[in-house]
Amino acid sequence: MKKIIIAVLASIIALCAPAKTNKINDRDKNLINAALLGWQIRLSAGYNIGGTAPLPLPREIRGIESYNPGLNLAIEGTVEKMFGKGDWGLRWGIRLESKGMTTKADTKNYHMEAWNTDGSGQVVGAFTGKVKTSVKNTYVTLPVLAVYRINERWNVSAGAYASYLLDGEFTGEAYDGYIRDQNPTGEKAEVTRAMYDFSNDLLKFNWGLQAGGEFRAYKHLAVFANLQWSINGIFNSDFGSVTFPLYPIYGTLGFTYLF
């Protein structure tokens, strides 16, 4: 796992860093751009905030008690090329990012497969009570975006991305409630605290749409915001332990250094 992350970071640095470690001048930058046939090198860092959520919110979830986005960082190396002297261009690259959250919710007749912490075994059925869920996923992502330059300072972008899961965690607990065996009319049993862990069932591939905007504050520095909306869920459609699809939907705020 650590070797994979190091390899991804090395790829980003190799893509974005100049060959020399000292400060490069405008002549060197022009040579780099000429060598890349007009492609501009960019290095970005940002913070992801959002959630892995069902759409729409199912009726079994009666309310969200708390939400903690966690520390979700993203580092990205991209190249960009504007076509001719026009306002349209193409941007693509590689991004190492984390997408996670912790939520607490009130539920009623929520399908649950968990294990009692008192050692009494597995419980399966319709749970009514409180549920805490924690998601911590690390992805390597490849975005491909069309870019429209509004003016010298502003541009917007939109396109698609594909992500590969490097490390994933989907865990939680059910507590302060009761469960009815198999379905809402089954035998009732109190649940003090039961745990679940579906980390091994997470899909390796995720893909979706991305759109955002960027403001060039200085010659070499820009700030940006974008939204990533997943098209496929984090589990297979036939995964029975979670009865509705969960989609990673995250916004990113950050800055970009323009070489």
CATH topology: Porin
Reading off the top of the CATH hierarchy, the class is best stated as: Mainly Beta
> Unreliable segments (pLDDT under 50, ≥5 consecutive)?
15-23
What structural class do helix, strand and pairing data support?
A: mainly beta
Strand content: over 45%
Helix content: under 10%
In short:
By secondary structure, this protein is mainly β.
How is the topology of this model organized?
Layout: H1 2-16, H2 26-35, E1 40-53, E2 61-68, E3 73-82, E4 88-116, E5 122-149, E6 154-181, E7 188-197, E8 205-216, E9 221-230, E10 247-258
Describe it.
This protein has 259 residues and is mainly beta. The protein has one domain: Porin (Beta Barrel), CATH 2.40.160. Helix content is 10%, strand content 62%. It has two helices and ten strands; from the N terminus they run H-H-E-E-E-E-E-E-E-E-E-E. Strand 3 and strand 4 form a beta hairpin. It starts with a helix and ends with a strand.
